[in-house]
Amino acid sequence: MTDYRNATLNQKSDAWFTPENGETIRTEIAVIGGGASGCMAAIGAAESGASVVVFDKNDRPARKICATGNGRCNLVNLYQNEKCWYTSSGVSVRERLASFSERDLLAFFEERGIWFHDRQGYVYPGTDQASVIADLLIREMNRLQVGVFSGTRVTGIEKDPSGAFRITVESVGGSDPGKEKNNRNRRKKEDPHKFDRNRYDRNRYARNRYDRDRNLKTESVQEIPEHRICIADRVILCTGGLAGPVFGCGGDGYALAESLGHSLVPTVPALTPLICPEKALKMAAGVRCPAAITLICDGEETGAEQGELQITETAVSGIPVFQLSRLAGYALREGREVRVRADFLPGMPEEEWQKHVDLRLRDDRNQTLEQLFMGLVHPKLLRFILNRLELVSEQKRAGVKTEQIRQVLQLMRGLDFEITDLAGYEKAQVTAGGIPLTETDPDTMESLACPGLYLAGELLDADGICGGYNLQWAMTGGLLAGRAAAGK
Q: How many whole angstroms separate alpha carbon 272 and alpha carbon 441?
């Protein structure tokens, strides 16, 4: 058995270090998952002097980070409040972050050359590129000689009587786990001689990027044979949840944690659109407008948010909907009736609104309904509202009862959408639920069920609202776990 406590890059091939076939990997700390929390855990442990290896399903670490913030990476938010996070564990998520605050996290990256700017408290890299954060994490792991095994899946973890962990690893080919099958099918159909501008541009960008920094190349990663074994003194689980299966997030970490003595809070997609079965919704598809959204479960108001509402052919979406999706998901899971109510004129004072009501009730009766309600809501949204009352925008005011006009105006201030499902983990930004926080040490992230095991990131039962809170939770938790594991 070879000891890889001094794992480094294979400089000849510029690939991440990989042991010879047939050898068992030996390390002090094994990090399972190479996302935001996994990279930070590896860096925290390696900076503290430990030998570290990382197992990641993707072809390179930190891939999911590149998609955060619409590719701009909203790293943290300067507004911090306990209400910015959810958990079913009955503990304070904010207190868990107190020893390494949002300012500390920013300083971590600033000390390594990244500058930031904020938009009303939402903090982004100065370049507005998430890739600079991902690349910096990879550079740091390279500098600290962290061994990274891309394209690998951990299938089992056992703890032997000596306290060491025996980790079973198999290869997934270093490809994108979420697209591997689709890519194979696509390749069968594509004409290999046809010029593909998009593919050419992607490949050219990739070549240029890797040429700028050869240390980031992972193209020649060797595949680990099936059932390779890793022996580690300590393990940090950073596998993420179920959100973003295209990035290899399949909930593997839940089963691994349960096998080591943990329980699981049921999971639902969070920060995701809400599915509305109403066929007429397509009439309003494409509408983006300000709205105050109220979540109603079994007739009871359970949450309220305000912001830009987006309507598609099958769902309601946008940040205020995302913020309520976790609550809607658990309500649907319990079999409750779920609706969202939208006020499309949330900023209008009651006195001004009454003036508009009086104006529409006495206005020219020769106008069409579209003309009568002009200027209040988006025309497509108006047609959808009128359809609810079996009216059409081309109708003349003279042929419509005054009570119907009042009903149209009322629906502008309170239109209900039936919700039957969530858009799913494919479109979710984060997973709600997971391993209970009460099963980990609040200061070190170490498992209380299995000493030597640490857990961080989305795997745990803590999820934030939109605005950088989930990335902060993942990175801070990973760093704290890495430092604690190395110091044990």
A: 30
Alpha-carbon gap, residue 272 to 270, rounded angstroms: 5
In CATH terms, the fold of domain 25-268+433-487 is FAD/NAD(P)-binding domain (3.50.50)
pLDDT (mean) for 79-108: 96
The three-state secondary structure class of 471 is helix
How far is 331 from 334, CA to CA, in rounded Å? 5
CB 459 within 8 A of CB 253: yes
Give yes or no for a contact between 326 and 84, defined as CB atoms under 8 angstroms apart.
Answer: no
- Count of beta carbons in the 10 Å neighbourhood of residue 71: 11
- Which among 174, 156, 223 has a CA at the least distance from the CA of 20? 223
Question: Residue 352 is which amino acid?
Answer: E
What is the number of other CB atoms lying within 10 angstroms of the CB of residue 281? 20
> CA-CA distance, 176 to 45, in Å (whole number)?
27
Q: Are 325 and 297 in contact (CB under 8 A)?
A: no
Work out the widest C-alpha separation in the chain, in whole angstroms. Answer: 90
Q: Where are the domains of the chain?
A: 25-268+433-487, 273-423
Task: Read off the pLDDT of each residue in 374-382 and give the average, rounded to a whole number.
Answer: 97
Cα gap 127→150, rounded to integer Å: 27
Task: Say if residue 13's pLDDT is above 60.
Answer: no
Distance CA 300, CA 380 (A): 29
Given CA atoms 349, 351, 353, 356 in this order, what sign does their dihedral have? negative
Strands 52-56 and 147-150: parallel
Q: Is 267 left (phi over 0), alpha (psi -120 to 50) or beta?
A: beta
pTM given for the model = 0.85
The answer to whether residues 482 and 29 touch, using CB atoms and an 8 Å cutoff, is yes
Band of pLDDT at residue 22, cut at 50, 70 and 90? low
The alpha carbon of residue 345 and the mean position of all alpha carbons in its chain are separated, in whole angstroms, by 30
- For residue 350, give both structure tokens: 């009651």
Q: Distance from CA of residue 32 to its chain's centroid?
A: 18
| Nearest by Cα to 416 from 339, 345, 346 | 339
